Amino acid sequence: MSDTNDPQEPVELGKQEAGAPPPPPPPAPESSYGQTPYPAPPPGAPGQPYAGQPGAPAALSPSDEKLWAGMAHWGALIAGMVTGLAFLAPLLVLVIKGNASPWVRRNAVESLNFQLSMLIYFIVSVVLIFVLIGILTTIALGVAWLVFTIMGAVKTNNGEDYKYPMTIRMVS
Length: 172
Known about the structure:
This protein is mainly α.
């Protein structure tokens, strides 16, 4: 190689004349639509989660906790009066917000267990109507269901835990 800069003379790779600017970086590869792709995030950088991506649920504020815990009890009362399926409201609260707060989960599970227990008692009581004792037990169960569900809802709205009596612990 000579010291003159002859454009016809090849330059060896890795060798560059002193004082010459570094070569420009190669152009970014283009996608099939003529757009340059986004640069990759640096290693270890946290990514942005997608909407609806499963992860840890956001913590509930105390007022939201009271709202959802109360909904497990009041919703059971309303659903029981309207459809007779009182267990649906606490089940929905458990599924929707049960993982967001331990207190909401405790109340939803307690209400769900009570509503399922009462459903079993009502079925047995209806069968006992053929023995005539079922009429009295059905009326007594209806009154007990109404009183205990209202008591649970009021205690929960006051921020207290409430344990229903006569409950079979099926869901934990």
